[in-house]
Amino acid sequence: MTIRDCYHICLENKRNLLNSRNEQRQASLSRLESENDRFREIKQLMSALGAKIAITAISGDKGKLKKMEETLYVLGKEREDLIKAAGIKDISYDCSKCKDTGYFEGKICECIKREATELCIKELSKVAPIDECRFENFDLSYYPDMETDSGNPKKRMTEILKLCCEYAKGFEPAKAESLFFTGNTGLGKTHLSLAVAYELIARGFNVVYGSAYNLFSKMESEHFGEHTDRAYTEAIECDLLIIDDLGGEFVSPYTQSLVYNIVNTRLLARKPTIINTNLSMADINRIYTPRVASRLLGEYNAKRFIGSDIRQQRSLRK
Ligand SMILES: [Zn+2]
User: What total number of domains does the chain contain?
Assistant: First the structure.
Protein backbone atom coordinates (compact mmCIF):
# COMPACT_ATOMS: atom_id res chain seq x y z
CA MET A 1 0.00 0.00 0.00
CA THR A 2 1.51 3.34 -0.99
CA ILE A 3 1.37 6.54 1.04
CA ARG A 4 -1.20 7.89 -1.43
CA ASP A 5 -3.53 4.97 -0.73
CA CYS A 6 -3.02 5.65 2.96
CA TYR A 7 -3.97 9.33 2.54
CA HIS A 8 -7.20 8.30 0.83
CA ILE A 9 -8.04 5.79 3.54
CA CYS A 10 -7.27 8.19 6.39
CA LEU A 11 -9.21 11.07 4.81
CA GLU A 12 -12.19 8.82 4.22
CA ASN A 13 -12.08 7.45 7.79
CA LYS A 14 -11.95 10.96 9.16
CA ARG A 15 -14.86 12.07 6.99
CA ASN A 16 -16.97 9.08 8.03
CA LEU A 17 -16.22 9.66 11.70
CA LEU A 18 -17.15 13.33 11.47
CA ASN A 19 -20.36 12.53 9.59
CA SER A 20 -21.40 9.94 12.10
CA ARG A 21 -20.74 12.34 15.01
CA ASN A 22 -22.76 15.05 13.25
CA GLU A 23 -25.57 12.62 12.58
CA GLN A 24 -25.61 11.41 16.17
CA ARG A 25 -25.84 14.95 17.49
CA GLN A 26 -28.51 15.85 14.94
CA ALA A 27 -30.56 12.80 15.95
CA SER A 28 -30.31 13.79 19.64
CA LEU A 29 -31.45 17.33 18.82
CA SER A 30 -34.42 16.03 16.81
CA ARG A 31 -35.40 13.81 19.72
CA LEU A 32 -35.20 16.77 22.11
CA GLU A 33 -37.35 18.82 19.76
CA SER A 34 -40.08 16.18 19.67
CA GLU A 35 -40.04 15.68 23.44
CA ASN A 36 -39.59 19.23 24.76
CA ASP A 37 -42.32 21.82 23.95
CA ARG A 38 -40.25 24.78 25.07
CA PHE A 39 -37.29 23.70 22.93
CA ARG A 40 -39.60 23.50 19.90
CA GLU A 41 -41.10 26.90 20.74
CA ILE A 42 -37.64 28.52 21.04
CA LYS A 43 -36.70 27.20 17.64
CA GLN A 44 -39.80 28.80 16.07
CA LEU A 45 -39.27 32.08 17.95
CA MET A 46 -35.62 32.27 16.92
CA SER A 47 -36.38 31.60 13.30
CA ALA A 48 -39.16 34.22 13.22
CA LEU A 49 -36.94 36.72 15.02
CA GLY A 50 -34.10 36.09 12.59
CA ALA A 51 -36.34 37.05 9.69
CA LYS A 52 -37.51 40.23 11.48
CA ILE A 53 -33.93 41.22 12.26
CA ALA A 54 -33.05 40.98 8.58
CA ILE A 55 -35.89 43.38 7.66
CA THR A 56 -35.16 45.78 10.54
CA ALA A 57 -31.48 45.90 9.60
CA ILE A 58 -32.47 47.22 6.16
CA SER A 59 -34.84 49.82 7.67
CA GLY A 60 -31.98 51.17 9.78
CA ASP A 61 -33.84 51.37 13.16
CA LYS A 62 -30.82 50.74 15.36
CA GLY A 63 -32.62 50.86 18.73
CA LYS A 64 -35.19 48.29 17.63
CA LEU A 65 -32.48 46.13 16.10
CA LYS A 66 -30.45 46.10 19.30
CA LYS A 67 -33.46 44.97 21.36
CA MET A 68 -34.23 42.18 18.94
CA GLU A 69 -30.65 40.98 18.98
CA GLU A 70 -30.69 40.92 22.77
CA THR A 71 -33.87 38.80 22.73
CA LEU A 72 -32.24 36.46 20.19
CA TYR A 73 -29.22 36.12 22.44
CA VAL A 74 -31.39 35.27 25.49
CA LEU A 75 -33.33 32.67 23.47
CA GLY A 76 -30.10 31.19 22.18
CA LYS A 77 -28.75 30.91 25.69
CA GLU A 78 -31.94 29.19 26.89
CA ARG A 79 -31.70 26.78 23.95
CA GLU A 80 -28.11 25.93 24.84
CA ASP A 81 -29.07 25.34 28.47
CA LEU A 82 -31.84 22.95 27.39
CA ILE A 83 -29.38 21.06 25.17
CA LYS A 84 -26.89 20.83 28.01
CA ALA A 85 -29.60 19.69 30.46
CA ALA A 86 -30.56 16.93 28.02
CA GLY A 87 -26.95 15.69 28.14
CA ILE A 88 -26.24 16.44 24.47
CA LYS A 89 -22.61 17.39 24.12
CA ASP A 90 -20.93 19.59 21.51
CA ILE A 91 -18.95 17.68 18.92
CA SER A 92 -15.43 17.22 20.21
CA TYR A 93 -12.78 17.22 17.51
CA ASP A 94 -9.70 15.01 17.58
CA CYS A 95 -7.82 17.71 15.67
CA SER A 96 -8.51 21.29 16.68
CA LYS A 97 -6.62 22.53 13.62
CA CYS A 98 -8.77 21.03 10.84
CA LYS A 99 -11.81 20.22 13.01
CA ASP A 100 -11.56 16.68 11.67
CA THR A 101 -12.19 17.70 8.07
CA GLY A 102 -8.65 16.57 7.15
CA TYR A 103 -7.88 19.87 5.45
CA PHE A 104 -6.34 23.01 6.89
CA GLU A 105 -5.89 26.19 4.84
CA GLY A 106 -6.56 24.28 1.64
CA LYS A 107 -3.90 21.64 2.32
CA ILE A 108 -3.98 18.18 3.83
CA CYS A 109 -3.74 18.61 7.59
CA GLU A 110 -0.79 17.40 9.69
CA CYS A 111 -3.07 14.94 11.50
CA ILE A 112 -3.79 13.11 8.23
CA LYS A 113 -0.11 13.09 7.30
CA ARG A 114 0.71 11.55 10.67
CA GLU A 115 -2.04 8.94 10.46
CA ALA A 116 -1.23 8.05 6.85
CA THR A 117 2.44 7.57 7.66
CA GLU A 118 1.58 5.32 10.60
CA LEU A 119 -0.77 3.29 8.46
CA CYS A 120 1.74 2.98 5.63
CA ILE A 121 4.48 1.76 7.98
CA LYS A 122 2.06 -0.60 9.72
CA GLU A 123 1.13 -2.12 6.35
CA LEU A 124 4.79 -2.46 5.37
CA SER A 125 5.61 -4.07 8.73
CA LYS A 126 3.32 -6.96 7.73
CA VAL A 127 5.70 -7.97 4.94
CA ALA A 128 9.07 -6.63 6.12
CA PRO A 129 10.74 -6.12 9.52
CA ILE A 130 10.66 -2.32 9.19
CA ASP A 131 10.27 -1.73 12.93
CA GLU A 132 13.57 -3.43 13.69
CA CYS A 133 15.46 -1.94 10.77
CA ARG A 134 16.37 1.67 11.49
CA PHE A 135 19.58 3.63 11.12
CA GLU A 136 19.82 3.94 14.93
CA ASN A 137 20.07 0.20 15.46
CA PHE A 138 22.38 -0.65 12.58
CA ASP A 139 25.15 -2.27 14.60
CA LEU A 140 28.61 -1.60 13.19
CA SER A 141 30.21 -3.77 15.90
CA TYR A 142 29.39 -6.82 13.76
CA TYR A 143 31.86 -5.68 11.11
CA PRO A 144 35.52 -6.37 11.93
CA ASP A 145 38.00 -3.53 11.69
CA MET A 146 40.63 -5.42 9.70
CA GLU A 147 41.94 -5.70 6.18
CA THR A 148 40.45 -8.54 4.15
CA ASP A 149 40.74 -9.46 0.47
CA SER A 150 37.63 -7.38 -0.26
CA GLY A 151 38.60 -4.45 1.99
CA ASN A 152 38.05 -3.37 5.60
CA PRO A 153 34.47 -4.35 6.58
CA LYS A 154 34.12 -1.76 9.38
CA LYS A 155 35.35 1.07 7.17
CA ARG A 156 33.24 -0.01 4.21
CA MET A 157 30.06 -0.39 6.23
CA THR A 158 30.59 2.90 8.10
CA GLU A 159 30.80 4.56 4.71
CA ILE A 160 27.67 2.83 3.40
CA LEU A 161 25.69 3.66 6.54
CA LYS A 162 26.68 7.31 6.19
CA LEU A 163 25.74 7.28 2.51
CA CYS A 164 22.29 5.84 3.30
CA CYS A 165 21.62 8.31 6.14
CA GLU A 166 22.54 11.25 3.92
CA TYR A 167 20.56 9.77 1.06
CA ALA A 168 17.40 9.64 3.18
CA LYS A 169 18.01 13.04 4.73
CA GLY A 170 18.57 14.94 1.49
CA PHE A 171 16.24 12.90 -0.68
CA GLU A 172 14.64 14.68 -3.62
CA PRO A 173 12.82 12.40 -6.11
CA ALA A 174 14.16 14.13 -9.21
CA LYS A 175 17.75 14.41 -7.98
CA ALA A 176 18.47 11.31 -5.90
CA GLU A 177 20.75 8.70 -7.43
CA SER A 178 19.91 5.01 -7.74
CA LEU A 179 21.71 2.60 -5.44
CA PHE A 180 22.76 -0.98 -6.09
CA PHE A 181 23.71 -3.04 -3.05
CA THR A 182 25.50 -6.33 -3.53
CA GLY A 183 27.06 -8.80 -1.14
CA ASN A 184 26.31 -12.06 0.63
CA THR A 185 23.22 -12.64 2.77
CA GLY A 186 23.11 -11.32 6.30
CA LEU A 187 25.26 -8.23 5.78
CA GLY A 188 22.59 -5.60 6.32
CA LYS A 189 21.35 -4.83 2.80
CA THR A 190 17.69 -5.27 3.76
CA HIS A 191 18.24 -3.44 7.03
CA LEU A 192 19.60 -0.31 5.34
CA SER A 193 17.04 -0.43 2.51
CA LEU A 194 14.23 -0.54 5.07
CA ALA A 195 15.80 2.22 7.13
CA VAL A 196 15.80 4.45 4.02
CA ALA A 197 12.19 3.44 3.29
CA TYR A 198 11.11 4.30 6.84
CA GLU A 199 12.68 7.77 6.79
CA LEU A 200 11.20 8.64 3.42
CA ILE A 201 7.70 7.37 4.22
CA ALA A 202 7.84 9.38 7.43
CA ARG A 203 8.62 12.44 5.30
CA GLY A 204 5.60 11.73 3.10
CA PHE A 205 7.35 10.35 0.02
CA ASN A 206 5.67 7.72 -2.07
CA VAL A 207 7.87 4.67 -1.53
CA VAL A 208 7.22 1.23 -2.98
CA TYR A 209 9.15 -1.45 -1.15
CA GLY A 210 9.05 -5.16 -1.77
CA SER A 211 11.08 -8.29 -2.18
CA ALA A 212 11.63 -9.17 -5.83
CA TYR A 213 9.61 -12.29 -5.13
CA ASN A 214 6.54 -10.43 -3.80
CA LEU A 215 6.72 -7.52 -6.22
CA PHE A 216 7.12 -9.60 -9.36
CA SER A 217 4.58 -12.28 -8.31
CA LYS A 218 2.01 -9.55 -7.79
CA MET A 219 2.80 -7.89 -11.12
CA GLU A 220 2.64 -11.21 -12.91
CA SER A 221 -0.65 -12.31 -11.39
CA GLU A 222 -2.23 -8.88 -12.01
CA HIS A 223 -1.02 -8.84 -15.59
CA PHE A 224 -2.10 -12.33 -16.57
CA GLY A 225 -4.98 -12.84 -14.11
CA GLU A 226 -6.82 -9.55 -13.76
CA HIS A 227 -5.38 -7.85 -16.85
CA THR A 228 -4.39 -4.80 -14.83
CA ASP A 229 -0.93 -3.43 -14.16
CA ARG A 230 -1.54 -1.55 -10.95
CA ALA A 231 1.53 -2.82 -9.08
CA TYR A 232 3.71 -2.29 -12.14
CA THR A 233 2.43 1.27 -12.62
CA GLU A 234 3.01 2.03 -8.94
CA ALA A 235 6.55 0.69 -9.17
CA ILE A 236 7.22 2.83 -12.22
CA GLU A 237 5.65 6.03 -10.86
CA CYS A 238 6.61 6.09 -7.17
CA ASP A 239 9.20 8.53 -5.75
CA LEU A 240 11.47 5.69 -4.69
CA LEU A 241 11.28 2.03 -5.62
CA ILE A 242 13.14 -0.48 -3.47
CA ILE A 243 13.56 -4.00 -4.80
CA ASP A 244 14.88 -6.26 -2.07
CA ASP A 245 16.68 -9.50 -2.88
CA LEU A 246 16.76 -9.39 -6.65
CA GLY A 247 17.22 -12.98 -7.81
CA GLY A 248 15.03 -14.35 -5.01
CA GLU A 249 12.03 -14.35 -7.36
CA PHE A 250 10.97 -17.21 -9.56
CA VAL A 251 12.90 -16.21 -12.68
CA SER A 252 10.90 -16.43 -15.89
CA PRO A 253 11.10 -14.64 -19.24
CA TYR A 254 8.32 -12.39 -17.90
CA THR A 255 10.20 -11.38 -14.72
CA GLN A 256 13.38 -10.91 -16.75
CA SER A 257 11.59 -8.44 -18.98
CA LEU A 258 10.03 -6.76 -15.91
CA VAL A 259 13.47 -6.12 -14.42
CA TYR A 260 14.71 -4.63 -17.67
CA ASN A 261 11.61 -2.46 -18.13
CA ILE A 262 11.58 -1.20 -14.57
CA VAL A 263 15.29 -0.39 -14.46
CA ASN A 264 15.23 1.23 -17.87
CA THR A 265 11.99 3.20 -17.54
CA ARG A 266 12.91 4.63 -14.15
CA LEU A 267 16.38 5.63 -15.34
CA LEU A 268 14.89 7.39 -18.36
CA ALA A 269 12.37 9.18 -16.13
CA ARG A 270 15.19 10.11 -13.71
CA LYS A 271 13.46 8.34 -10.86
CA PRO A 272 15.65 6.70 -8.20
CA THR A 273 15.60 2.99 -7.40
CA ILE A 274 17.39 0.95 -4.77
CA ILE A 275 18.09 -2.65 -5.68
CA ASN A 276 19.83 -5.15 -3.47
CA THR A 277 20.93 -8.65 -4.33
CA ASN A 278 23.05 -11.60 -3.22
CA LEU A 279 23.83 -12.36 -6.86
CA SER A 280 27.23 -11.81 -8.37
CA MET A 281 27.63 -9.60 -11.43
CA ALA A 282 28.23 -12.75 -13.48
CA ASP A 283 24.84 -14.08 -12.32
CA ILE A 284 23.15 -10.76 -13.14
CA ASN A 285 24.72 -10.81 -16.58
CA ARG A 286 23.51 -14.32 -17.17
CA ILE A 287 20.00 -14.03 -15.68
CA TYR A 288 18.98 -10.50 -16.65
CA THR A 289 21.17 -9.98 -19.74
CA PRO A 290 24.23 -7.74 -20.06
CA ARG A 291 21.96 -4.77 -20.84
CA VAL A 292 20.59 -4.81 -17.27
CA ALA A 293 24.00 -5.55 -15.74
CA SER A 294 25.62 -2.62 -17.53
CA ARG A 295 22.91 -0.23 -16.35
CA LEU A 296 23.19 -1.41 -12.74
CA LEU A 297 26.96 -1.03 -12.82
CA GLY A 298 27.16 2.09 -14.94
CA GLU A 299 24.23 4.21 -13.82
CA TYR A 300 23.55 3.06 -10.26
CA ASN A 301 25.86 3.86 -7.37
CA ALA A 302 27.00 0.29 -6.67
CA LYS A 303 28.11 -0.65 -3.15
CA ARG A 304 29.42 -4.02 -2.10
CA PHE A 305 28.57 -5.05 1.48
CA ILE A 306 31.36 -7.05 3.12
CA GLY A 307 31.85 -8.87 6.42
CA SER A 308 30.43 -12.09 7.77
CA ASP A 309 26.78 -13.08 8.22
CA ILE A 310 25.27 -10.99 11.03
CA ARG A 311 22.41 -13.38 11.70
CA GLN A 312 24.93 -16.13 12.41
CA GLN A 313 27.04 -13.84 14.60
CA ARG A 314 23.96 -12.72 16.49
CA SER A 315 22.89 -16.26 17.28
CA LEU A 316 26.44 -17.05 18.39
CA ARG A 317 26.44 -14.01 20.71
CA LYS A 318 23.24 -15.16 22.42
ZN1 LIG B 1 -6.16 17.86 11.41
Answer: 1
Does the pTM exceed 0.85? Answer: no
Give me ligand 1 centre to Cα 114, in Å. Answer: 9
Distance 91 CA to ligand 1 centre (A): 15
CA of 96 to the centre of ligand 1 (A): 7
Q: Which domain holds residue 277?
A: 127-317
203 C-alpha vs ligand 1 centroid, how far in Å? 17
Residue 186 placed within a domain? yes
Residue 111 pLDDT more than 90?
A: yes
What is the Å distance from ligand 1's center to 2 Cα?
Answer: 21
Task: Give the pLDDT score at 158.
Answer: 97
CA geometry: angle 162, 165, 171, nearest 5 deg: 130
pLDDT in tens, 164-174: 999 999 999 99
- Does 81 fall in a domain? no
Q: Which residues contact residue 79 at a Cβ distance below 8 angstroms, ignoring those fewer than 6 apart?
A: 39, 42, 43, 46
